[in-house]
Amino acid sequence: MPDMSTGDGAATNPGELVVVRHGESTWNRDHLFQGQADPPLSALGRRQAAELAERFRTTGLRAVATSDLARAHETGAIVAAELGLDLPVVLPDLRERWSRTLTGLHRDEIEARFPGSVEAWRDGASTELVGDTEPYDVFATRVLAGLRAASELASAVLVVCHGGLFRVLHQVCGTDLRAGVANAAGRRLLVEAGRLVDAGDAFRPEGTPATGAEDL
C-alpha cells in the first residue's frame, strides 16, 4: 500500500490534516452512486458545511483544500468563507473513485444486479467495486498524492474529500472505517516525516449513526 512519502515531493514538514467528507449532495439524498459525477450539495449539505465551519472556528486551521468536484468544493468554500480563509485550493487528485458501471445507479439497482455488493461495501468488507471501476491501488496512490499536496499548503489544513478516501486511510493508518465516512464527518490526522498518523479524533454530525461505510 502506498503512503504519503511515495512519489515526487514527499512531505516532510510536521503538520495536521483535518480530513472531512463533503456535505450531503443531491445524489446522496437520493441514494445514487456518485463516483466522479458532479451533483451539487443539497440544502442539508449546505447546512452541514456551515456547521463544520462552527466546529473549526477556534481550531487554528490555516488553509482549505478540496477535490474539484462541486460537492467537495462547495463544502470547502462555505467553511473557508465563514472562517475568513482564502478560497479552497483545488486538488483534482482528491476526486472520488470512478466507476462507469455504477455511477448514476440507485443502491437498490446495484443490489439487484450485484447481490451482496452494497452490504459488503457499506460494511467496509471490501476495497473492490464491481464492474468497470478505477482499480483500488491506482485510486489509493492518487488520493495519497492529493493529501501530500494538501499537507504542503500550511501547518493545519482542512481537506474536503470523498468517502472512498477514508477506505485508504483505513488501510494506511488503521483508522476506524466506520467512524468517519458519513456526510460532513471526518477525523484529524498528523503528518509526521511524510507519513499519516491517526490522531484518534473522529467526528460526525450530531444524530448521525456511527455504523456503516458511506451511503450509496
From TrEMBL:
Entry superkingdom: Bacteria
InterPro entries: His_Pase_superF_clade-1, His_PPase_superfam, PG/BPGM_mutase_AS, PGM_Phosphatase
Pfam families xref list: His_Phos_1
Gene3D superfamilies in alphabetical order: Phosphoglycerate mutase-like
Gene Ontology MF annotations: phosphatase activity
Keywords assigned by UniProt, alphabetized: Glycolysis, Isomerase
One GO cellular component term: cytoplasm
Active site per the UniProt annotation: 22 (tele-phosphohistidine intermediate), 96 (proton donor/acceptor)
SMART domains the UniProt entry points to: PGAM
Binding site for substrate: 21-28, 71
PANTHER family: BROAD-SPECIFICITY PHOSPHATASE YOR283W-RELATED, HISTIDINE PHOSPHATASE FAMILY PROTEIN-RELATED
Protein name per its UniProtKB record: Phosphoglycerate mutase
